[in-house]
Specification:
Shape: elongated
Number of helices: 4
Number of domains: 2
Helix content: 40-55%
Structural class: mainly alpha
Low-confidence stretches: none
Largest sheet: 2 strands, antiparallel
Radius of gyration: 52 Å
Strand order of the largest sheet: 1-2
Number of strands: 6
């Protein structure tokens, strides 16, 4: 196998560096996915709690901070060089030994101070989305109420019409009788104007019997 040229060596070195950076980024993203924000710092999502929290913390103290078994960073709150835990969370800064939200950021959950932080613009979008959802819900309920009111009004109208049906039928029959009476009166008046015809009495002669049948 021949020796590599300078160009080939540079290409090989560049490819290795890109591969290393990609692996580092992959590991970093994996750690971020497995982290929580507590007190403005990134800590392990699967960190120990209770008795094991004290035990793992004692182990870190016994190793002078070489280990990070409690997954909460260095012994005195800084970022651990090996695990990466203890790093200041995005949107936070250190101020006098405390981790506070940066200017232009707000707490993602106001009931969880020290938790995740988001930009004010992102918070405004979330609030606008919530307001729109609440408005749509209110409008939907209003339409349902209006529809229920219309159905109730229709039922009441139908019931009143059914209750008045006998009276309507009686009124209809009376109207028919009045119409028939008026029609009869008009007929009588019309007949009175017809002239009387005096027809002459017709005479008939008896048939002559010619005796043809004899």
């Amino acid at each position: 196998m021949g020796r590599q040229t300078a160009s080939q060596r540079r290409k090989s070195w560049k490819e290795k560096r890109q591969e290393t950076n990609a692996n580092n980024l992959k590991n970093k993203l994996a750690r971020l996915e497995n982290t929580s924000i507590v007190g403005g710092r990134l800590v392990g999502k699967d960190r120990a709690g209770g008795f094991m929290r004290g035990l793992t913390g004692f182990g870190d103290w016994a190793t002078f901070g070489v280990s990070d078994w409690d997954k909460q960073g260095n012994l005195y709150g800084g970022q651990h060089g090996g695990s990466g835990y203890g790093k200041i969370a995005p949107g936070y800064e250190q101020d006098g030994g405390k981790f506070v939200v940066k200017k232009g950021f707000v707490a993602e959950d106001p009931l969880n101070p020290g938790g995740g932080a988001i930009t004010e613009a992102a918070a405004d979008k979330i609030e606008a989305k919530k307001d729109k959802k609440e408005l749509n819900t209110w409008q939907s309920k209003l339409k349902e109420t209006e529809a229920a009111g219309n159905r109730l009004a229709d039922r009441q109208l139908l019931r009143s019409q059914i209750a008045n049906l006998p009276a309507l039928m009686a009124a209809g029959n009376l109207g028919v009788a009045e119409a028939a009476k008026g029609h009869a009166a008009q007929t009588v008046k019309a007949m009175a104007h017809i002239p009387q015809l005096n027809l002459a009495q017709m005479s008939y002669q008896p048939m002559i019997d010619y005796g043809l049948g004899r």
